[in-house]
Specification:
By secondary structure, the chain is α+β, with helices and mostly antiparallel strands. The chain has three helices and twelve strands. It has helices at 7-20, 155-170, 211-241, and strands at 28-37, 40-49, 55-67, 73-84, 89-98, 103-112, 118-126, 136-139, 148-151, 179-185, 191-197, 200-206. A hairpin with a 5-residue loop joins β10 and β11 (191-197). It starts with 6 loop residues before the first helix and ends with a helix.
Length: 242
C-alpha cells in the first residue's frame, strides 16, 4: 500500500512542511478586499510587491459558500498569472456573491511560485449562524480546516468531486491541510484525476463514465486521504515530543 516503506520520505516531508507552513509573505503580499453591496458582497483579490524587483506568480481565488440551513455548498475558483513592477499593488480578480443570514463564506487567496509552492496567502470569513450583519474576519497566520479545492474540468470530474466531498465530510475529516482535486486530459479522450496535499499526489486514477466506478474510487480516495493525514499527525506528534 501507499505508506509501506516510506518512513524516510515522510521524515523529509515533515521538515518540508515546517518551512512550507510559515509563508512569510516578505516578497509578495496577498490581500482580500471586501465591499458590501446591498444583499451581495464584492470580493477583490489583490497583490502587492514588497521588493524593488519585478515579481511574477500564479494565483487562485477560491470562494466557498455554505448555507447553514440547507447545508448546500458551492465552490468557485478563479486562477491566473500576474507580474508586478517594484512596489506595485495590482487587482487580480473580482467576484460578487449574494449573502443571506444563513450563509457562511470562506474566501481564500493563494499565490504560487514556479515550483507550485505557496508564497503568500490571505483568508476572510463572511457571516455565520444567522447574524444580521455581515462579519468580516481577516485572519493572519490562519489555520485552514476542511478545505477541498475543485480544479476539475469535466462533468465526470465534478461528479467525482461531489462524491469525494460528501464522503470526506461524512466521516468527519477536519484537517488543517488543503486538499486539491485536479483533472488533466490524458490519453485519447480520457482524463486523469489526482488528489494532492502539500504538493504531493496521494491518489490518482483515469476517469471512467461509470457511477459505480466513481463511487468506488471516491471511497478509496477518501480512505487514502484519511490514512495520509493520520500518518502526518503521528509524525507531527512524534517530532513535537523529541
Amino acid at each position: 500500500m501507499y505508506f509501506i516503506n516510506r518512513h524516510i520520505i515522510i521524515f523529509l516531508l515533515f521538515f518540508s512542511f515546517l518551512v512550507y507552513g510559515q509563508v512569510p509573505q516578505d516578497k509578495i503580499k496577498a490581500k482580500i478586499e471586501i465591499e458590501r453591496v446591498e444583499n451581495s458582497v464584492k470580493i477583490t483579490g489583490t497583490a502587492e510587491n514588497l521588493t524593488e524587483v519585478i515579481r511574477s506568480a500564479t494565483y487562485r481565488l477560491s470562494v466557498i459558500k455554505n448555507n447553514n440551513k440547507s447545508n448546500n455548498q458551492s465552490n468557485n475558483d478563479q486562477v491566473g498569472v500576474f507580474t508586478l513592477q517594484p512596489n506595485e499593488i495590482q487587482k487580480l480578480s473580482t467576484s460578487q456573491i449574494n449573502l443571506t443570514a444563513d450563509d457562511e463564506v470562506i474566501i481564500l487567496l493563494l499565490f504560487y511560485d514556479e515550483d507550485k509552492q505557496i508564497i503568500a496567502k490571505d483568508r476572510v470569513v463572511l457571516g455565520e449562524e444567522k447574524k444580521d450583519d455581515v462579519i468580516v474576519l481577516p485572519v493572519d497566520g490562519f489555520v485552514l480546516r476542511g478545505i477541498i479545492t475543485d480544479d476539475t474540468k469535466t462533468k465526470m470530474g465534478k461528479d467525482f468531486y461531489d462524491r469525494y466531498y460528501y464522503k470526506y465530510n461524512d466521516i468527519g475529516i477536519n484537517a488543517e491541510k488543503i486538499v486539491t482535486i485536479s483533472e488533466e486530459y490524458s490519453f485519447a479522450r480520457n482524463t486523469a484525476i489526482s488528489i494532492t496535499i502539500d504538493n504531493e499526489v496521494i491518489y490518482d486514477f483515469l476517469v471512467r463514465p461509470d457511477d459505480e466506478f466513481l463511487d468506488a474510487v471516491a471511497e478509496e480516495a477518501v480512505n487514502t486521504t484519511f490514512t495520509y493525514l493520520k500518518e502526518k499527525e503521528k509524525q507531527r506528534k512524534y517530532f513535537t515530543q523529541y
